[in-house]
Amino acid sequence: DNIYQVYEDEIQALEEEIKLLTEKYEDIQQESLSLSDEEILKSTQSFEREMQGDSVSDLKDQLESLEADLSFLMKLTGLQFTSHSQKTLERTKEKTVQKHRLSGNCHSLSFQLEFQLLEMQSKEKVSAVVSDLSIVMESREDSDVSKFVSSIEEQRNLVTFFRSLSTYAEWFERRRWTFLHFK
Description:
Mean pLDDT: 83
Largest sheet: 4 strands, antiparallel
Structural class: alpha+beta
Low-confidence stretches: none
Order of helices and strands: HHEEEEHH
Shape: elongated
Radius of gyration: 32 Å
Helix content: 55-70%
Strand content: 25-35%
């Protein structure tokens, strides 16, 4: 008897809650019907313009900032990338394998890189490992450059490659201008 009374009380409370929610819903429906279609359309368009205007101007500002940063880095390092392609070879929840091809020049030296990038994701961090690195440079006939490129390919260290390439290409360009001056 007591258990049935508890259930009946719960049912009655739920019926009252349903009645209140139905009344609220009907009130909201009446308010929205009182607005004309034109008013709704104007307010929607106004809201969309505000959102688009802010986001477009923010994106333009970000793009200009990134272009300025890129220009500064190109002047500082002499590195200029002319093409990049990327192909995803394998993708799972924990890892992604991509094949990258980069080409560009540093001062007057051109280069091409091809490598695979393995990105592994754990709970807290993402780690990336470079494999199958292949570097092609125009001045590879120089034995020192050839040794350097071979060691970088073995180490698979792109940061060291770009830092060293920037310094080497800058001095290569200076030597070339000096020899041209004395000719």
